[in-house]
Design goal:
Number of helices: 3
Bound molecules: coenzyme A
Strand order of the largest sheet: 1-2-3-4-5
Order of helices and strands: EEEEHEHEHEE
Number of strands: 8
Radius of gyration: 14 Å
Helix content: 10-25%
Distance between the termini: 14 Å
CATH topology: Aminopeptidase
Structural class: alpha+beta
Strand content: 35-45%
Number of domains: 1
CATH class: Alpha Beta
């Protein structure tokens, strides 16, 4: 899978114990066309409250030294065809103060849904998450 300056290499599926709020996810490395590993993108498959309300179906990270090139935007673009084999629409979320992530989500033309308070019982709460902006994206 490829888009603009990046390609995705499938690494592994991370499994979880069934029955909880966490769901399994596909883990891809993000590489430049020159072969530098610049970050990763995860696609979480499931529709628990934790996914739909708090963390969304997609997570991405670009290593600090490679930021500033919108590589996460291209990674999301590259993963679209794979997402479409699972979902017509996915949820993307961001901390309200994560300006670069919100810019990437807007660039993807995702539709803003709402901003929620993270419930105390959500697994992200203990990691410090308190508020999330939620978006719906048609990949
Ligand atoms: C979010 C993240 C993946 C974006 O990395 P990236 O793809 O390299 O994105 P960029 O650094 O190119 O930034 C995207 C946009 O935000 C802008 N931006 C970046 N930092 C900014 C800041 N502090 N204030 C305002 N705008 C900022 C960039 O100028 C760019 O804008 P443009 O599209 O108008 O040019 C990266 O910051 C990261 O890995 N963060 C930690 C993990 C994370 O937060 N993941 C997202 C939640 S899953």
């Amino acid at each position: 899978m490829q888009s603009g300056p990046v390609k995705l290499n499938f690494e592994k599926i991370i499994g979880v114990e069934p029955g909880a709020e966490l769901v399994p996810f596909y883990h891809f490395k993000i590489l430049t066309n020159e072969g530098n590993i610049v970050g990763h993108i995860n696609f979480k498959v499931g529709d628990t409250n934790h996914i739909r309300q708090c963390v969304g179906h997609i997570g991405y990270k670009i290593f600090p030294e490679y930021r500033g090139n919108s590589y996460s935007y291209f990674a999301c673009d590259a993963i679209r065809p794979f997402l479409r084999t699972f979902y017509k629409k996915v949820i993307l979320t961001s901390d309200p103060d994560n300006v670069p992530s919100i810019k990437i989500i807007k660039k993807l033309n995702a539709k803003f849904l709402n901003e929620i308070t993270v419930p105390v019982q959500d697994p992200s709460y203990k990691d410090g998450a308190r508020r999330k902006k939620r978006y719906e994206w048609e990949p």
